[in-house]
Design a protein that fits this description.
Blueprint lengths: L2 H24 L6 H13 L4 H7 L8 H9 L3 E5 L7 E5 L1 H25 L4 H12 L3 H15 L1
Antiparallel strand pairs: 1-2
Helix pairs in contact: 1-5, 2-5
Length: 154
């Protein structure tokens, strides 16, 4: 196996193991990892249009309309007409959605706390730089960059 192929599969394997672990943490909340990302993004940046939400998501490329529809039906998100453009809707969290978003944040923190000792003293910044080079200019890279920029605005 050449080193690039090994790196590719190691990243994929690490992502899948992380996803499995996080999925297990979310089970008591009855949420998928995609739903948890939507809740967190809305909690951090609401209200958002469907297009704006889609631009900030890594889990869903393109339009997250089906995902959002299911979350509206579940009572986690509410849609209101945009005060600026009546053809558009604004998405925001319901009270239940806000509560679940806070629980997701707690689960994320537990997940990160479990990984922190593994990464201490390791060249994490260098690895992140390499990964940013891989995703730069791609939809998921743009979504992450937008989220980082928006965090800087706060």
């Amino acid at each position: 196996m050449n080193p690039i192929e090994e790196l590719r599969y190691l990243i994929l394997a690490a992502q899948r193991e992380g996803s499995r672990t996080f999925t297990e943490l979310l089970k008591p909340l009855g949420l998928t990892t995609s739903q948890s990302e939507v809740l967190r993004v809305l909690d951090d940046h609401e209200p958002l249009s469907l297009i704006e939400l889609g631009q900030l998501l890594v889990c869903e490329t393109g339009s997250p309309s089906r995902l959002v529809s299911r979350m509206v039906e579940a009572g986690l998100i509410e849609q209101r007409p945009s005060p600026v453009d009546s053809r558009k809707v604004q998405l925001s969290l319901t009270e239940e959605g806000t509560s679940k978003a806070r629980m997701v944040r707690e689960m994320e923190n537990r997940f990160y706390d479990a990984l922190t000792p593994l990464l201490e003293g390791r060249p994490v910044q260098e690895l992140m730089q390499l990964l940013w080079m891989q995703v730069k200019g791609k939809p998921t890279g743009r979504a992450l960059a937008l989220r980082k920029d928006k965090e800087g605005e706060v």
